[in-house]
Design brief:
Pantoate--beta-alanine Ligase, Chain: A,domain 2; six-stranded parallel sheet; 38% helix; Rossmann fold; globular; 9 strands; single chain; 11 helices; binds adenosine monophosphate
Length: 291
């Protein structure tokens, strides 16, 4: 695996691979890699000729009171994992290289960026779209892989790619969970054993909503109420939002007949966790019943 530290050296390495006729799959990450990240890398391996991974804890997507300073940084271990996955290129730039003094250009997907996590994390998605746009220019990937775990991010990146004509295909990979259902996240490392148990309330709330939807409930209001009730049963967990929205526009929907994204964010202690489930519309989910 080649490790590239500057945008210019990464651009050159990627250009060489393009020149050789190889299709590049890009997996952007902030490191502290876990099985969720590795699932994206394996998908990239299967669908492209050369896999590029970026590890960059992007300061632009953290708010002033968020966990930028304490975000886990485990580059040495990450490199071993990436070597084992036969990644071709690792891009691990410094803040200065990504944002030289005087950098004042940003990419914003208006509207969507203020929804879900964007409401409680102002500026977060502007940071995400700006860094992803830069990565797309540096790598010029044929394919880029993102996790459904960050459902709003997926919607926003897809909108950016469409609106700005980035010549890249976005591949969305399913959420990887621990055995008990907790969605894998680098931030799970912040949880002590008690909080780790409390954190399961997020998954439980989504499963409750999924079950209700499976048994015919269509009203968003009823589903949200049921999901919030599950969170409220766990006193260690403070809800940020529990919403049912259109997965592409992130607009609230009043019923789930045509499918919907159910998204939850909550604090366990000072750790903010997110999770979601996609409910499929009646016509998408099962064969028509007979008789
Ligand atoms: P992060 O390092 O948290 O910025 O995540 C990098 C990429 O990995 C994003 O596209 C995430 O959506 C994806 N990802 C993180 N956790 C998971 C997970 N549990 N399952 C699937 N993808 C994930």
């Amino acid at each position: 695996m080649k490790i590239l530290k500057t945008p210019d050296s990464m651009y050159a390495a990627c250009a060489q691979r393009h020149h050789d006729g190889r299709r590049i799959g890009l997996v952007p990450t902030m490191g502290a890699l876990h099985e969720g990240h590795l699932s994206l890398i394996r998908a990239a391996r299967a669908q492209s000729d050369a896999v590029a991974v970026s590890i960059f804890v992007n300061p632009l997507q953290f708010g002033p009171n968020e966990d930028l300073a304490k975000y886990p940084r485990t580059l040495e271990r990450d490199c071993q994992l990436l070597e084992a996955e036969k990644v071709d290129l690792l891009f691990a730039p410094s803040n200065q290289d990504m944002y030289p003094a005087g950098a004042t250009t940003f990419v914003t997907v208006e509207g969507l960026s203020e929804r879900l996590c964007g409401r409680s994390r102002p500026g977060h998605f502007r940071g995400v779209t700006t860094v992803v746009a830069k990565l797309f220019h540096i790598v010029e990937p044929d394919l880029a892989f993102f996790g459904q775990k960050d459902a709003a991010q997926v919607a926003i990146i897809c909108r950016m790619v469409r609106d700005l004509n980035f010549p890249v295909r976005i591949v969305i990979c399913p959420i990887v969970r621990e055995k008990d259902g907790l969605a894998m996240s680098s931030r799970n490392a912040y949880l002590d054993p008690q909080q780790r148990k409390q954190a399961l309330a997020l998954y439980r709330s989504l499963m409750r909503v999924q079950t209700l939807a499976d048994t015919g409930e269509r009203s968003t209001a009823k589903l949200v109420e049921a999901g919030k009730d599950v969170i409220a049963e766990e006193p260690g967990v403070r809800l940020d939002y529990f919403e049912v929205v259109n997965p592409e526009t992130l607009d609230p929907v009043s019923d789930i007949s045509h499918g919907a994204l159910v998204a939850v964010a909550a604090f366990v202690g000072s750790t903010r966790l997110i999770d979601n489930v996609v409910l499929h519309g009646a016509s998408e989910s099962r064969e028509p019943s007979v008789g």
